[in-house]
Give the backbone structure.
Amino acid sequence: MCGITGYVGHEEAAPILLDGLSKLEYRGYDSAGIAVRDNDGKVRVVKAKGRLKILSEKTDGGTTLPGHIGIGHTRWATHGEPSEANAHPHISDESSDSSAVVGVHNGIIENYHELKEKLIAKGYKFYSDTDTEVAVKLVDSYYRESGSPLEALEKSMVVIRGSYALAFMFKDYPDEIWTARKDSPMIIGVTNDESFIASDVPAILKRTRTVYYVDNLEICRVRAGDVKFYNIEGESRPKEAVSISWDAQAAEKDGYEHFMIKEIHEQPKAVYDTLSTLLKDGLTDLSSTGLEDSLIRNFRGVTIAACGSAWHVGIEAQYLLEGLARIPVRVELASEYRYRDPLPGFWEMNSDTAPAAGPVAGDLVIIISQSGETADSLAALREAKKRGAHTLAIVNVLGSSIAREAEFVLYTHAGPEIAVATTKAYSAQLVAIDALALHFARVRGVITEDKERQMTAELMTIPDKIRTLLEEKDRIQWFASKKINTRDAFFIGRGLDYAVCLEGSLKMKEVSYVHSEAYASGELKHGTISLLEQGTLVVSVLTQNRVLEKTLSNMVECKSRGAYLMAVTTHGHFEVEDIADFTVYIPKIDEHFAGSLAIIPLQLLGYYTSVARGIDVDKPRNLAKSVTVE
Ligand code: M6R
């Protein structure tokens, strides 16, 4: 979703704003703009539809906009089409080159229509279709009354409904930027004599590692090297800066053609680093999460809420937690969970127990999210808390909203993930779930310590086995180039293999634009099989011994209807080759963990198909990395 940058210091602001925006490109956008105040107090705004490159060309890399303070924005359209008029920054007064208020916004102002009507009644005119222009003019209306940015923001926050990260420059405060935030991310980086505003850490990593995370409903005054925080009542609040440990290199391509392939190659490390924090002396150890064994013993069930790939991890978790730890699990799309009045304690209901509405103490809700900022997942977390459930967040981004609001946090250690399509964060989440399931299983007395040791030893083989699989990437590239004109693809598997298929299919469609669906192989003949035509690509995953023959039969059914078959199976199942047209073998591993290996060829298939089709693989159309609106 939208990206925000801001700078105040002694250097030229525009090139810094553009560079910061380039580091936020991964968030997805369709237009961009910057506003810089010069030394005479005049603000110049330049915007461009399309790629940041166009904005950079229009401003000659920022050099045509002199000034040491400014704000920048990449816009992912919500209200109004992608166009220059709708691009941010927006201004309060078109007829002046020193507009009283200039602002950028990430999020959605839900009551913008109502606010706009009121502002029109006050005499305001609008030049764009955006909710942001409404926010700028609303702030302007309060600013005109009091002359105080703080008061104008406080009053605006009281009447605005929705989510926002806002950054403003005010005419009479030429050395300050003001920000306000609710449910959309925002950080402030500082050095001795400069300050940086951004939607995410990579935008400022080159310049500083000292960062403040802006809290919900917090207002912030940013001067060069000096940041002050206020609550919505306008009272000043103390805040500690944190030091970011990633190096800037982690957010660069490092010689790879795309971030996605770089991140695919970083999976052994992401998996190893995540496991290392969850295993100790051969056993799982969740002490870093704060979740205590006494609680784990008493959970009656687990609800998992997440979106997209993180939801796929949830499906895998259901098989693992139920299979290994014998605890009931329900997996929810966060966007549904938040609105459908769920009962966290459903598993205890029987004919003698009336379903209790509202919280059932003792239940656990797990929220899985790479960014920790996904609006639906954050809302699901709040819903679960409201209902009295214990909450555990599995999150990759340190200090993100979900991490801060959950009762317990399990951090994955995938490092910054830039490509829109998740790969290494997904893999890190999978092994986090593996460790969690093993821990629950031992603590709840389902498996012995010996068994757990044996299984954690298997888990630790995953990084090397992924490395081995990556050595085979040329074969997948060859296969992808052969199937470049594929119109439809179906991914089929049973049990844990089905969970992998969901993710493999998403990888295919989101980056290569090939229509793709995942089906539990047993479901094919209940409808989907009618879609098969001569040459339709069917990808089967067969790592689960108990159901392997069943899926083999389903493959035969597909083949006899003209399908072209790719199979991913475990080394040793050579019978698969008799049926499949193209087979990839994964190294042998305990079946519970095979998903971590089977996904690798499927990620590569999506990636190479996208590249062969000439698609912008890191920034596929219409998608945003972090979905901070509903
Ligand atoms: O940041 P989150 O994990 O909460 O994001 C959830 C989904 O938006 C995300 O997994 C999305 O489906 C990925 N782009 C898929 O590759």
Summary: The radius of gyration is 26 Å.
